[in-house]
Specification:
about 200 residues; alpha/beta; Rossmann fold; 9 helices; about 60% helix; binds adenosine-5'-diphosphate
Length: about 200
């Protein structure tokens, strides 16, 4: 199953994506984690992106697209978290998946207000000490979300499953499972007269 999870900072994408990955046996591909890993390693990529993450700005599209192309190259399924964040990134992702004949199965959107997002990120800062969870940096990240990532949400509107991200973790996951279940049902019941889905991996993963 190829799942994209969208939502603002603090909406719980990472938490839900981890649960999805465990239950549906797909890798959790989180660009923020990949970038923080590169910074921790001190690689060339890490040195390049460190000041960008500290400011809460976005890493250039071409760099992110190359990174994702490489990361998804051999994956049949995934839950993608943190990418695409801009329309050019979304265009590149769609083209890349179309090229290999493996489009997204489902796009989830976790919805939360800016007030709740801010509150949660400040809590996380106290617990985890993420440097980009400082109030002025959070404001910049949310501003970029509204300006650059909401058009990505609009692009996927026809296939979007919106979930109320302000509920508890368990309630949100129940809604996520329901959305994913609907997709599986569609896959298991092809239209009368149409040939059966010839790719069994699409049903099971
Ligand atoms: P959040 O969603 O809370 O901002 P992430 O861990 O997903 O946290 O991302 C942290 C930072 O990594 C972002 O603020 C940004 O600087 C960078 N980043 C992650 N994904 C992308 C992307 N697709 N495009 C550009 N920058 C990205």
């Amino acid at each position: 199953m190829r799942i994209l999870i969208l939502g603002p900072q603090g909406s719980g994408k990472g938490t839900q994506a981890k649960r999805i990955a465990a239950v549906y046996d797909v890798p959790h591909v989180a660009t923020g984690d990949i970038l923080r890993g590169a910074i921790a390693e001190g690689s060339e990529l890490g040195r390049r992106v460190e000041p960008i993450l500290e400011r809460g700005d976005l890493v250039p599209d071409d760099l992110m697209v190359d990174l994702i192309r490489e990361r998804l190259a051999d994956e049949h399924g995934f839950v993608l978290d943190g990418f695409p964040r801009t329309v050019p990134q979304a265009e590149a992702l769609d083209a890349m998946l179309e090229e290999i004949g493996k489009p997204l199965d489902v796009v989830l959107l976790l919805e939360v207000s800016d007030d709740i997002a801010l509150e949660r990120l400040l809590e996380r800062r106290a617990e985890e000490g993420r440097r980009d969870d400082a109030p002025d940096v959070i404001r910049n990240r949310l501003r970029l979300y509204h300006g650059l990532t909401e058009p990505v949400v609009a692009r996927y509107h026809p296939m979007l499953h919106a979930v109320d991200g302000e509920l508890t973790v368990g309630e949100v996951f129940a809604a996520v499972e329901e959305a994913l279940g609907q997709v599986a049902v569609v896959r298991l019941q092809p239209e009368p007269g149409s040939s059966l889905d010839s790719d069994p991996e699409r049903v099971t993963r």
